[in-house]
Design a protein that fits this description.
Radius of gyration: 66 Å
CATH class of the largest domain: Mainly Alpha
CATH superfamily of the largest domain: Tetratricopeptide repeat domain
CATH topology of the largest domain: Serine Threonine Protein Phosphatase 5, Tetratricopeptide repeat
Shape: rod-shaped
Helix content: over 70%
Order of helices and strands: HHHEEHHHHHHH
Structural class: mainly alpha
Number of domains: 2
Strand order of the largest sheet: 1-2
Number of strands: 2
Largest sheet: 2 strands, antiparallel
Length: about 270
């Protein structure tokens, strides 16, 4: 009732005050029924409004979902296409990785072959490159084959195979006329011929050695061998002169000491 009174006070203008007095005159039961009907109507109206708002919201939600779905569909297709491209790229990368590994293996094999070829080439080149030799206090360059041939002939001489040594020394001088081994080869060739009792040839080799290399370390021994060859040829006069020249030119050598003894015997 208090609310009705308040409503009446609020609406005094426009003749509503009379209506309010009528409402005050109603019985409490009638007023209660009136209030229940209004409440029901208010509730029904509220429900209708809520239903309308819910339907409107659901429609808007459905429309928004459709709109979002329409917008998302192209993106989903794009994502699927992109995933397909990524898978294809992964396959290409795996193929390239396999090819790259194969290329690296081939490159490694090629590099190994190059090293082998370079090593083999170096070895072959070294067979023809001059080598430095030190002999009888002298140093000179010779070809590998030249060094091998000289050492082979000298080995035969030291083994007592004088005929083969003579042939090899002669061939050496013919093949290498400018060799640094030239003078010493003449010395060993003369000794091989002396051992074979070819004294005339021995004299020729020793004289040639002394004419081209009078200061050679083997010169004193060559002079002693020359004098011995002359003795074998019964040329005592020539032998005596050779001994005397040896003592005069190489007085401190062992060959000079031997020459002095031989001179005593020639008297």
């Amino acid at each position: 009732m208090r609310s009705v009174v308040l409503a009446c006070r609020t609406h005094l203008a426009g003749g509503l005050f009379t209506l309010c007095l009528g409402m005050l005159a109603m019985s409490p039961v009638q007023a209660g029924l009136f209030e229940d009907d209004d409440a029901r109507k208010a509730i029904l109206e509220l429900r209708q409004k809520l239903d309308l708002q819910r339907d409107s919201f659901e429609r808007r939600l459905q429309e928004e979902q459709r709109r979002v779905a329409d917008e998302v569909a192209p993106l989903r297709r794009s994502l699927l296409e992109l995933q397909g491209q990524i898978d294809a790229m992964r396959g290409d990368m795996a193929l390239l990785r396999g090819q790259n590994e194969g290329l690296l293996k081939d490159l490694s094999e090629l590099q190994r072959r190059q090293r082998d070829l370079a090593t083999g080439l170096d070895e072959r080149v070294r067979k023809f490159e001059p080598v430095k030799v030190q002999l009888d206090g002298r140093e000179f360059l010779v070809e590998p084959a030249e060094k091998r041939d000289y050492e082979s002939a000298l080995a035969l001489f030291r083994q007592g195979e004088f005929e083969r040594a003579q042939a090899n020394f002669s061939e050496f001088l013919r093949r290498y006329p400018q060799s640094g081994y030239g003078a010493v080869t003449l010395f060993w060739l003369g000794n091989a011929q002396y051992a074979l009792k070819d004294y005339k040839s021995a004299v020729s080799q020793f004289r040639l050695l002394l004419s081209i290399a009078p200061e050679h370390p083997k010169a004193a021994e060559a002079m002693l061998s020359l004098a011995n060859s002359q003795i074998e040829l019964k040329d005592s006069k020539a032998a005596r002169k050779t001994f005397e020249d040896l003592v005069r030119m190489h007085p401190q050598s062992e060959a000079a000491a031997v020459a002095k003894e031989r001179l005593q015997k020639l008297k």
